[in-house]
Structures are given as C-alpha cells and as structure tokens.
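Data availability (excerpt). The following record was deposited with the supplementary files.
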Amino acid sequence: MAEGTVTFFAEKLSNLILQEASIFGEVEGQIKLLRNELEWMRLFLRDADSKRVYDERVKVWVNQIRRATHDAEDVIDEFILNMDDRRRRLNTLKFLKCLPTCVGFADKLPFIHELDSRVKDINVMIGAIMANRSKYGLEALTASSSSTTIDQVEGYKEKRAPLVEESNVVGIDDGAKEVKQMLMMKEEVSGRSVVFIVGMGGLGKTTLAKKVYNQRDVQGHFDCKAWVYVSQEFRAREILLDLVKCITPLGDTEKREMREVELGQKLREHLKEKKYLVVMDDVWSSEVWSRLRPHFPEAKDGSKVLITTRNKEIALHATSSDAFIYELRLMNKDESWQLFLNKTFQGIGTTTPTLTTALEELGKNIVTKCEGLPLAIVVLGGLLSTKEKTKQSWEKVFASIEWHLDQGPESCMGILALSYNDLPYYLKSCFLYCGIFPEDSEIDAWNLIKLWLAEGFIQRRGKERLEDIAEDYMHELIHRSLIQVADRRVDGGVMSCRMHDLLRDLAISEAKDANFFEVHENMDSTFSTSIRRLVIHQNLINHDISQCLHNSSSRLRSLVSFSKSGIGKRSWRYLQEHIKLLTVLNLEEGFYGHMLTRDIGQLIHLKFLCIKELRSDVKLPSSIDRLVNLQSLDLGFNYCNIPHSIWKLKKLRHLQCSNCKVSSQSQINKCVNGYLGVEQLTNLQTLALEGGSWLEGDGLGKLNLLRSLTLGECSTSYLKTEFFKSIAKLTALEFLDLSFTEGPTKKTLANHLGLVRGKKNVTRDHNKTLLPGLMPFSDHAYLYDLSLGGKLEKLPEQIEFYPPKLLKLQLWDCELIDDPMMILEKLPSLRILGLISDAYVGKKMVCSSGGFLQLERLELDELFELEELMIEKGAMSSLKTLEILDCDKMKKLPYGWLELTNLEKLSLDGSSCDESIKEIEEAGGEDWDKLRKIMC
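Predicted structure:
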C-alpha cells in the first residue's frame, strides 16, 4: 500500500513540475530532490510492503514513509491553493495590472519561502527515514519489482481466461436439489412457509440460493419472485422499498416519500393473491424476520420466503411447523480439490490438468489449509492462477499460508489476507477502495472506475486509455475472486460487481491499518487526525456532516457519503472552511438544500464531484469554472442549469448530467472572454446533457475520444447538417441515446432523415440510401447500444444504415406507421429490442420465420394502437424474455408464442393480453402450465 501512495504522489509531482513550471521555478531544486527521493523509496517499498506483515520494524518504517509522503502532498497542494487564491485576488483588483511585475512577485514571495522551507524539512525527514533502514537492521530490504508488474497485467489482458461461474461451483448440486425440494414441495401446511439456508461466512449460502432461484422450474413454480440483500445494516424501510421495486413499478415520488407502513401495505396487497418466492439474503438478526413477517401474506398456499444466514439461532428462533432449515456443510477433500483445479487452471480447457506428483501433493496440502471453505479455495486458486505452475512457486505460497494461519484462529481470513498481500500495489488500492461501499451493495462498475481514476490509482500504460486500463484492473480482481460480477452489459462487459462481506471486512481492516480510509457507521466513531478518506454510512443529524469529521478534516482528500439524510447548507459551509484539499466528493444519496454554495470553486483540487438525488433541482454556481482539475461531474437525474463556463474545464472526461441544460454564452461575454464551446473538452469520454445552442456548429464532432453520448430534448431547431455530420464523425461511440423534440419549425426527425413520404428529397437506391440528415452508422464499428426518440414515420430499410455490431436498440415516440419488424429482424447481432411509447402506431406486427435469430429480449411498452403480434415458426428462436406492458388494445397473446421454446419470462402489465390469459387459464392443460411457469 505504501508503494502505491509514493508512486501515485511521485507521478503527480512530476506532472505538476511540467504543468506549473512558473510556480515551482524558484524552489525547483528542492522539489526535484523530493521527487528523486520518492523514486528511490518506491523501489525499496516494493520489497518492504510485502515484508511488513512479517516484521514489525518494517511496518513502522513503511508507515513513516507513508506519513512523510502525505505531508509532502499536503504541502504542495496547500501551496497551489494559496497561489490560486493569489491569482484570483490579483485578477479582481484590476488596477494592479498597471503596477510593475515586481509587485505581483512580492505578493507571492511569502508563499514561495514557506514552500521552500517546508519541502526542505520533508527532505530532511525522508533522509532520516531512509537512514533508519541500516540503523535498525533493515538492510535486507532491496530495490526490487513487485509481484505483478504493469507489463504483466498488459499480457494478462490478452490471455484473460473465462471465469468460473459461481453457479458451477463443485459440490453445490446436492444442496441445490434439497433446497429446491423444500421450496416446491406440496406441504400440508397452508399459506406461506420459510426456508433457511444456514452456514458460516464463505461457505456459499448466496451462491446456493442464486443457483436454486435462477432455475427455470423454480421460476415457473411461483407467480411472483423477488430478491433482496439485507446485511448487518438492516433498515426495514429500505428492504421493503427494494422488495416493492422488484415486483411492481414505483414512481420517483413514491420511492422518496412512502413510509415503511405504506410500503408494507403495498407489498402485502400485491402478494396476497399470488404464490410468491421472496429471498432475503444475508440476514444477521432475528429482528429482521420478526419485523418483516407481517408484510408477507399467508393467503396463497405454497408461497415461500428463503432466508440465508450465518446464525442458526435466527432459524431456530423462527422455526415452527411452517419453517425448514438446510444447513450447508463444508466441502470434502475431493470437492475441494476439484474446485481448486477449476479455479487455478481456469480457461485452459475442460480436461483435468496433468500435474507432477510433487506438484499435486503440494497442491493438496495447500487445499487442506482451506478446511473445505469454498471462498478460501476460490480466492487461493485465483492467486495461484497468476503464478507459474512450478513446485518452487507453489512452495512459496504454501509457506506464506502457514505464516498467515499462525497469526490467528480463522483460516479463511488468513488465506484472504495472503491473497491481498500478494497483489501488486496498484491493485491493492483498487481492492481496498471496493470496501467503501455498503455491505452487500451492488457496485456500479463504471462509477467505480471513475473513482479509481480520480484517486490516481490507474497507472499510465503507453497510449492506452486510462478507463481501459482500469477495466483491466477490475477484470484481474474478478479473476482472483476478490470481487464478483453482479451483472453484465449486453456486450458482456461488467455492469456491476459485489464484494463478499468477509473480503469487505478484510478491506476495511487493512484500509484502517494503512490509514487508507475509515468508515463512519455509528455516531460514536472517532478518527485519526490524519485520515485521508472518510466514508459515511450513518444518517446525519440535521443534515450536518461536521459531526463526523471533528479534527480530521484538514487532511481529508475524499468524502463519500451514502447517508440517506443528505447534507445541508451548514455542511457546505464547513466543507469550504475546513476541507479545502478535497479530491473526491461523492454524495450518493444526494444532498439537502439544492444550491451548491458559490464557494465550491475553492475546491480547486476536486477531480470527482457526484451529487445524486431523485430528480431534484440543483443550481451550479458560476465558480464551477475554477475546478480546473475536475475529471468527472455526475448530477444523476437532477435538473440543473449549468453555466456555459463549464466548457473551460479541459480535464473533464465524464460529464453526466442528462437532465441539465447548459446556458448560452452571450455575445458580450464572447467579446470579453473569448468563445467557449464543447469542442474545448477534448478529453471527454462520456457526455450526457440536454440539447441546446451549444450543439450549433461542428464542435460536437471534434470530440473524437467520446465513447458514450446521451442528448435529451434536442429541439429540431438545432438539428442542422453540422449536427448530423458531427454524429457521423464520432466513430469511437459505444453508446448513443438521442431524443428529439419538435421545434418552432415543426420538422420531424423524418424530415432530417429524408424519409417523409411523398417528399421529393427522398433518394432511393436499392444498393445505397443517401440521407441528407442523419448519416448511416456503418462506420460506427464499436456502437452496440443505440436509442432514438422522436417522430420518425419510416425506418431506413438498408441494413447497412445501422451499426454493424448493434446489440441493443430502443425506439420511442417515433410514431412509425409501417411495421418495423420486417426491417429490424434482419439485424444480424441484435439481442435486445425495445419499442416504447408509440414507437409504432400500427395495429399489427409480424416477425418472419428466420428473423431475429439472436434476439433474447423484446419489450413492447405503451404501444397503444397495437392489436396483434404474430410470430412465425422459426422466428425469435433465442428469445428468453418478452415484455408486453400497457398495450391495452392487444387482448391476445402473440400468435406463435408456444413455438418460443427458449422463452423463460413473460411480463404483462395493464390489460395487455388479458383475454388470452383468461381463456387459457379456464381451459387448463399444457398451455396453461407453460404460461403459468413463465408469466410474472
């Protein structure tokens, strides 16, 4: 960890020397001396970091280096902050421009002298620390490379192996069969019953529950299913809210304002006539079931609640005639060995690897140390999968295991600690950072990557994009089983991940020991005055954040809050007065007050600013343009007016403000300050904004690094030829979401596409279509997710118009007159299709035989004129999910639905298909059995 601290700061210092030469010129000698010392320390720390767990002297030495590095970083950043204040004052006092240059220099002289003095002191301190290496017998520490170099990770990227899926864990089948029988048995007990899966941490309770829950016959057995994570931080309202969201749509106001009792009533009302399955994962207290039990009705026989818990007493407390307990056992030797082989040799083929006798014996000795615990086995297998398959390499690991196990009675935690200590420094930081998120929470992968970037954890690797390198880091942590994939994007990438609670405990413990971050989970928490990162989970009293910070705030660099109470104006004032060196400000659950203080611009070191709320109004002050280091601005779904000076922030990589407008720059402002436009954000990777005058011209097309573009409410008055040419130039796009509205000219999107019927500007050629507006997407080789909203009476017929690797397509408000299926069914790679909110206004759609061969999900939502969907035999052969929502004129199920042999889920809402459902239910038989199993 200390190696990472030093490396990240050394790189930061090198960049500052280049960027701020005019500032550091007078103290250049001391700054360069500091940088050189850091480089030498970094090399020795690669060896010391791995040895600190074995030698208390090394641990002290490493901690001293870390503190000295933090001191140096504070000195440099405070100096930059003071110089920024100086510049601003001089610019405000216009008359000073008439004075000699020496006056401005004299003004900054005290700061330079202070910097010079403090850096000298730090260099002396570092010299003394390095001298202690020989003074206290630490000469054995040598300059060396870490366990895994960045170059090795680059090689790993190319040979990345398929992951061992959790559901395929060895030895789980017997347990799955028994739990399934408990869930599906026709018990004599009427009403709802409870099934408990009990076992120690790391034994695979969640894995087993998932395997059973996702089985097709289990899904079909129940009318309604829901899964919720509970964890130690039990809050009844949040659990009920998550359950209700699983089974019925909720508006933003309902999510925000419904009380616990109202949510309970809504849940009970929805479940009372259904046979339901509800999974409550990771229950720690008997209070959970006691408090939630009244909300689960007993009206329908066969309904089940499945609870996973470490504590058998919880199951015994609830046990009655309507409860069943399955107690997970440890793996036997054969199962443990097979799981170890699967993980250690993942991706090399399906055959059992051939090992030498010596290596097999050593491997079995290693597995024995795991004592049959699956989590320990897969984590240790993940570690060994990165090592050479030699006796010498495995002996080193075995020796380390024995040392870690000697430190305490818990074998699992010792093995997890070994896997952590084996990580290279840059992965250690990334792994520990995953511990900031609430227990059992689903972590948004993209948000995590942006946080890693802002924290400086991602090391440059040639000309590769930093976000791609960060994604490699994430894949290696997954490969080592230190984090788990929770959900994937349609292209197979990681959408979200989770962290096992034992690994989270390890991350929090190691982070506290290294002064990396601390978690505030109760009001009695006390922190070191040198804390660098603070994570708040506890709700705040009176929205006041200062209660958590006490005397630790002056050194604080990252503040991450998951407090649902938010923070108020008093907290903002405290931030400006006491926490001026913030790099990350992440308010996941939003804030209280809606107005960012105008002094937000004082946080000039800020790289990541995230304020999320449920569609509230937020105001950004004009001082936002002082945040010159800002890389990521995320306002969630808040509504906001953003000053046009946002275009000054040239380091912005991610601007995610999809409900926000950017103000127009006045002519006077252009004359005084020069033109500002979106094209100045040349580092931008993600852009989500409402359309506006900033779209005029060709500036958008100059953002050649853009990967994700979301434009909402684009008035057609801005949709000139330059706009569509700009879209055509953005060939690096992977995600594109365009929403068009009619402007004063009353033109539709169809006009710009050149597809309005009867118009002379329609040029037709069976080989090629020439469009005067929106250009073909044939050059968008990476675009896999496309959404279009706006009036469009006809789709382009040529398949070449569409992105060649399109996997997901959503159309809404298009008012298509002709059946779109005859065109869309020919898209060769399409997996997800959504037609939403009058995307089609005709009465009938036909899916032809042989069409939509790759389609896995079809969503028809609010197609108010649709009466009939016909699916010919051989069409949609891969379809797994069909959603027909609020298509109220469609009274019958799609013709041919029985031919969809892979269909697993049919979602209906409103009065969609109600006549067919009633007829099939009354007739009974095989058709009803199939329909009942897939319908939800």
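Summary of structural features: Residues 144-165, 743-772 have pLDDT under 50 and may be disordered.
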